[in-house]
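phosphoenolpyruvate mutase structure dump, as promised
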Amino acid sequence: MEKSRTTTTEKRRARIRSALQEKRCLRLLEAHSPIAALLAESIVVTDSFGREISYDGFWSSSLTDSTERGKPDTEVLTIHDRLLNINEIFEATTLPLVADGDTGGLAEHFAFHVRSMERLGISAVVIEDKRGLKRNSLLGTEVFQEQEDVESFCRKIRIGKAAQITPDFMVIARIESLILEAGMDDALRRARAYVEAGADGVMIHSRMTDPGEVMEFAQKFKAEHEGVPLVCVPTSYSQTSFEDLQAAGFNVVIYANHMLRSSYQAMRSVAEGILRHGRSLEVEDSCLDVKELLSIISSGLGETKQSSSA
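structure tokens r here:
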């Protein structure tokens, strides 16, 4: 059966919350453009048990969204910039999307951001407990980064939850304690406060290559909050399998920047090859066939294949 290319705003928005009730763990893949999202939605593989596996949704990363536009990852893009890109992704796809909301901005502004995201059909937003000029978390203590005080961040969560209209939208609190070396106790203390403030889920982030600290957090967090969704982003501990993260208690695994990182490598290789050889013949094997490219876009528009003499 051919996969449907249509959905509604309401159905898309509700899919992450409903999927979390049906599945132990979701896979989300970064999509910085409609073509990246179309590709992510079309990928299906078969595992060693003969089961078909696909992505459950998209992640709209502030890092890749900014980088694609040649801008630093410092919240320089406005919420309107981000939503324009997401709307274009939604026009071509059907999977749900979780948005990287950075710090969420001022609490009073966050209320309006929630309404805008909810209206567009975004399923959830993740906001991090930092303040001041936003810097990418994987830079850690190499640059100045400061965590927001607990009560101020809880207030932002409460304001965001009070602003939403439907029960489908989710506000997920991202904890930066391990990133900034504040310790496990601080991370767990913040998690308790954020859940009590109304957060629909918690993301724990780490820049360690060993997954030990996120696994420890998962064990201790789930002992206190068994029913609260727990999210991770295994960029730095990339050797850790989805199955191991699921077994540890994580409910969402986000592959947060790989589509843009890989596309840049491929484009650079092709661009260098054309210059080096003075023609494109040598790089054609690295490029998608034009007819296949046209077919991808046509399928995204719901068109049927037709013969053509052109």
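Confidence is low (pLDDT under 50) at residues 300-310.
lmk if u need the other ones
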